[in-house]
Write a structure and sequence with these properties.
The protein is α+β, with helices and mostly antiparallel strands. It has 15 helices and 18 strands. 39% of the residues lie in helices and 21% in strands. The protein is elongated, with a radius of gyration of 31 Å.
């Protein structure tokens, strides 16, 4: 019988900071997937002998912003250190990072799961520089060199400010891991310090995984899965490693502490090297950089400027009557939440509800955006215009079908709903006497359908409804049609029974 195991997971997040220049020099931070390789470099980020780095104050500000959002204690005394290791994309042979005296310690983040709220502790948040980017080419012709294998290095990314967030091993399921990673990803985007574009490698996850028998409090040897750049890779890689380690223990084997890679094609982890410990890197203070003293008053100022974060925003939306799911959809993208907040500001002089706005935004507006390939940033329909349209529908000026047609025209032209309704004569017909006369004429013109209805085929009521709507060019009030049609058909049914 197989034993039951509990995963013990810690997460490391490496996020590039969107500053204008690199961490220790004046080179521009550029999109490393688009820029011409090795053009945004200088003697400092190339690791030339004798070059002196300088500290990017904006990177420290951005890192402090993240640390405060994660409820960390920002440390007043910071020291940069040399982390010594060799790799082809690290020209200096060491990485400037923080070790003994990091930017922030002892934070936490609450995440919502199917089992309720769970608090994940944050061990540390520290700053460092990113490495260059290696591209491995198998066979063919690469960079002017023909051969079976080649490795190309692009140092545009070398020296870009990198923020590392390290959690405690408080995560015991892949569900919680994914929720935690998604919330961290959202926070970085809301703080406008990172684009969140994982396909471009600007945020990368590393999952530290071990397993133990359920009920045990032992921390067994762990493996670290490096450079996972999607939520899918994070969850599948971690699931695979949990299963792999569990199988080893079932066979009375030993799990080696090592660094793993994730093969997306094969959907499995593979060993890269033995897992290093801190002493392997021979950390020592960076002699070319002074310690950083962070003024508590400056930290207080940064805290006051923090935006409303996703979890707080979601709670506020739920208090407005939205479901947890709807609120989650709205806060998932900062642009969507911003649009929705602007729409809420336009509700004051209307009877339109927050729920109605959410429904139209995530339904009709999203459908138009998806079909056109556009996004909210270039949407021609302003939040106030959307609220105006919803007000016309809910106030009975136009019906829901006309409302959808009007929205399409607004989407294409940017015109207001009022202008389109007036120009195209789309105002809803709610005149009950006109609708009643139309129904009477329609019934008189379709005696066979009436007889079939009276004979028990009551689904024909919907056919009559559609014909009335068609004759009135789709502009009739559906509630009035339904009421008048029901009355007219019931009257004829009564006459048939009496005769």
């Amino acid at each position: 019988m197989k034993r039951q195991y509990q995963p013990v997971i810690g997460l490391e997040v490496h996020a590039e900071l969107e500053t204008a220049s690199k961490m220790f020099c004046g080179c521009a931070v550029v999109d490393s997937t688009m820029a011409e390789p090795n053009r945004h470099v200088c003697p400092v980020c190339l690791g030339m002998p004798g070059m002196l780095p300088t500290i990017n104050a904006k990177a420290i500000e951005y890192g402090t912003r993240v640390a405060l959002a994660l409820n960390c204690e920002v440390q007043p005394f910071n020291v940069f250190a040399r982390k010594n290791y060799f790799y082809p994309d690290l020209p200096k042979g060491y990485q400037i990072s923080q070790y003994e005296y990091p930017l922030a310690l002892h934070g936490w983040l609450d995440v919502e799961t199917s089992a309720g709220t769970q608090r994940i502790r944050i061990r540390r948040v520290h700053l460092e520089e990113d490495t260059g980017k290696l591209t491995h080419v198998d066979g063919g012709y690469a960079g002017g060199y023909a051969g079976e294998n080649a490795s190309l290095v692009d140092l545009n990314r070398a020296g870009v400010p990198l923020l590392e967030i390290v959690s405690e091993p408080d995560i015991h399921s892949v569900e919680v891991l994914k929720a935690f990673a998604e919330q961290l990803h959202a926070i970085l985007r809301y703080l406008k310090v990172n684009s969140g574009d994982m396909e471009k490698g600007v945020i990368r996850f590393e999952s530290n995984v071990s397993v133990r028998p359920i009920g045990s409090d032992v921390l067994n040897p762990r493996t670290e899965i490096k450079n996972l750049n999607s939520f899918r890779a994070l969850t599948r890689g971690t699931e695979y490693e949990i299963a792999r380690q569990s199988a080893i223990y079932d066979q009375a084997g030993t799990v080696r502490q090592q660094t793993m890679g994730w093969n997306e094609m094969r959907q499995q982890t593979f060993a890269q090297r033995s897992k290093e410990n801190a002493h392997d890197y021979r950390y020592f203070p960076e002699p070319d950089l002074p310690p950083v003293q962070i003024d508590p008053a400056w930290v207080t100022e940064i805290r006051a400027q923090l935006p409303e974060l996703p979890a707080v925003k979601q709670d506020r939306y739920q208090q407005l009557g939205l479901s947890a799911y709807d609120a989650g959809v709205l806060v998932a993208e900062p642009e969507t939440a911003h649009y929705f907040d602007q729409a809420l500001s336009a509700l004051a002089s209307t009877r339109v509800s927050a729920k109605s706005v959410a429904n139209w935004l995530t339904g009709q507006v999203f459908a138009l955006l998806n079909a056109s390939g556009q996004n909210l940033a270039n949407l021609k329909v302003t939040p106030a215009q959307l609220v105006e349209l919803i007000g016309l529908v809910e106030g009975g000026t136009i019906n829901i079908n006309s409302g959808r047609d009007v929205l399409k025209k607004m989407f294409e032209t940017g015109e207001s709903a009022q202008a389109i309704v007036a120009r195209d004569g789309l105002a809803q017909v709610s005149d009950s006497s006109l609708i009643a006369r139309t129904i009477d004429q329609l019934i008189a013109d379709n005696p066979n359908e009436l007889q079939n209805y009276l004979a028990g085929k009551e689904s024909l009521a919907q056919w009559f409804f559609g014909q009335v709507m068609k004759q009135l060019k789709g502009q009739a009030n559906p509630q009035v049609i339904k009421a008048e049609l029901t009355a007219a058909l019931e009257l004829r049914k009564k006459h048939a029974q009496d005769s």
